[in-house]
């Protein structure tokens, strides 16, 4: 590893011997060599600039394709995904939720309709959560509400109570209007298209992709220890919480 040299010494070297140890294409004065990572790279002095900030690491991207009444989906969301999101810094994990799962889209006399694996109640739950996301916009606002819905006795009947606890600023009337109107159908159509475009095609739910990729191994690791998986994949500085953990066994997935 190259020794760390104080900036003042670098500046002195530049004054005494301008070309010594600095890239020929460096057009910056010595006092700016360590001002940014790009400048240090241009002057090839990165190893001599101890104060340079570390490059920001990309968050681990997780997408969950699920349906609102599937027991395995609810278990993963409530017991794995939500606790992991709470435990990790925001910059480590980016989550996308797609409530649709094994539903089927159909065109009835020019109007879209949906059949869901667990019946009309699940279709309503899927659409409510899609409309909640649309109205609340911010992930940190709507995710606790979805956690509340999925962990409660009824996904479709507890919206008012969950909003009062976790997001009182969100208007339940707007969510209801979305569910009852064209916007809810449009949101479900979008989720249908996104789900059907999966490669490889989903075979069951919950279906988990990590950084846009799905494999049996990644699915198993996410279900066994999502926290450990995210900590392993994240390339930036890791918090103390990162480590191994054991977790309860999940119900089997909801197959198509």
Automatic annotation (TrEMBL):
One of its GO terms (biological process) is immune system process. Residues 1-21 form the signal peptide. The keyword Secreted applies. One of its GO terms (molecular function) is oxidoreductase activity, acting on a sulfur group of donors, disulfide as acceptor. Pfam families: GILT. One of its GO terms (cellular component) is lysosome. Transmembrane segments: none annotated. Keywords: Disulfide bond, Glycoprotein, Immunity, Lysosome, Oxidoreductase, Redox-active center, Secreted, Signal. It comes from the Eukaryota. Its EC number is 1.8.-.-. It is found in: Secreted; Lysosome. InterPro entries: Interferon-induced_GILT (IPR004911). The keyword Disulfide bond applies. Belongs to the GILT family. Dimer; disulfide-linked. Lysosomal thiol reductase that can reduce protein disulfide bonds. May facilitate the complete unfolding of proteins destined for lysosomal degradation. Plays an important role in antigen processing. Facilitates the generation of MHC class II-restricted epitodes from disulfide bond-containing antigen by the endocytic reduction of disulfide bonds. Also facilitates MHC class I-restricted recognition of exogenous antigens containing disulfide bonds by CD8+ T-cells or crosspresentation. Lysosomal thiol reductase that can reduce protein disulfide bonds. Facilitates the complete unfolding of proteins destined for lysosomal degradation. Plays an important role in antigen processing. This is Gamma-interferon-inducible lysosomal thiol reductase.
């Amino acid at each position: 590893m190259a020794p760390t040299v104080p900036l003042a010494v670098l500046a002195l070297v530049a004054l005494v011997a301008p070309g010594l140890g600095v890239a020929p294409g460096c057009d910056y004065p010595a006092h700016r060599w360590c001002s940014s990572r790009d400048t240090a790279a241009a002057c090839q002095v990165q190893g001599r600039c101890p104060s340079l900030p570390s490059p920001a690491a990309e968050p681990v991207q997780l997408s969950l394709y699920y349906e609102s009444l599937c027991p395995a989906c609810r278990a993963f969301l409530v017991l794995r995904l939500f606790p992991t999101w709470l435990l990790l810094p925001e910059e480590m994990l980016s989550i996308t939720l797609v409530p649709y799962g094994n539903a089927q889209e159909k065109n009835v006399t020019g109007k879209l309709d949906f059949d869901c694996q667990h019946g009309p109640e699940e279709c309503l739950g899927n659409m409510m959560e899609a409309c909640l996301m649309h109205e609340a916009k911010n992930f940190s606002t709507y995710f606790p509400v979805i956690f509340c819905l999925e962990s409660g006795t009824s996904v479709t009947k507890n919206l008012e109570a969950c909003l009062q606890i976790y997001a009182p600023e969100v208007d339940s009337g707007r969510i209801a209007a979305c569910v009852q109107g064209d916007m809810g159908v449009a949101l479900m159509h979008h989720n249908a298209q996104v789900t059907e475009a999966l490669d490889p095609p989903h075979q069951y739910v919950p279906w988990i992709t990590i950084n846009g990729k799905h494999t049996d191994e990644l699915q198993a690791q996410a279900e066994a220890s999502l926290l450990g998986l995210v900590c392993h994949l994240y390339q930036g500085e890791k918090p103390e919480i990162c480590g191994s953990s054991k977790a309860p066994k999940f119900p089997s997935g909801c197959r198509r």
